[in-house]
């Protein structure tokens, strides 16, 4: 089996080299991989760093179009049987991809998500701050709405780690340009009849002062509207 790992990047000069080393070092038995990096109009040193790294496919956007647009570009250029999305920061450890892909290899699932939220808030860690606590409850709320609207219980709709077959998205028209990509693809996978298997993962959340780009209110509102939109239309 061949796995396409899509990495959207925008101004990630501090972490992109480290995450790519981790992805390049990742070995999975009986699975080949291609690494597709879509630079979404970076204005820092990200592109210079990318040019120094071998064995990756680099696609450049002339300007910043949004994460959803970068992922869609990656999907169009993917040649793998399955696709997974990897953020360019260090929140998600690529070693966990090995665990996520096992149910696929064993024919136990068609779509696998890595869930961060099969737990209570970490009041002694990141969720002791108001911003991260708000993000936690916002994500849980959006996941609950997803479950109600689409008839399958999901705990972490907003997770980065979404592993799905290329053939599933080849038939989709994906419209999202920004972070609303997450609810759109989830909605359309569920409406296409795919069941999502969630596997717990660990993350090291990046702070907003370290470059975290998600805005809980703005992006959460867009996500909620997206979930309702695609429940009743295509």
Overall body shape: globular
Main beta sheet, described? 7 strands, mixed
Structural class: alpha/beta
CATH top level assignment: Alpha Beta
Q: Supply the number of structural domains.
A: 1
What is the fourth-level CATH superfamily?
Spore Coat Polysaccharide Biosynthesis Protein SpsA, Chain A
Low-confidence stretches are none
Describe this entry's structure for a reader.
By secondary structure, the chain is α/β, with parallel strands linked by helices. The protein has a single domain (2-232), classed as Spore Coat Polysaccharide Biosynthesis Protein SpsA, Chain A. It is built from eight helices and seven strands; from the N terminus they run E-H-E-H-E-H-E-H-E-H-E-H-H-E-H. It has helices spanning 16-25, 46-51, 67-77, 97-105, 130-150, 166-170, 181-191, 216-232; strands at 2-9, 32-40, 57-61, 82-85, 111-115, 162-165, 196-200. Strands 3-2-1-4-6-5-7 form a seven-stranded mixed β-sheet, with helices on both faces. Helix 5 (130-150) packs parallel to helix 8 (216-232) and helix 7 (181-191) packs parallel to helix 8 (216-232). The longest helix is centred in the middle third of the chain and has 21 residues, at 130-150. The mean pLDDT is 92.
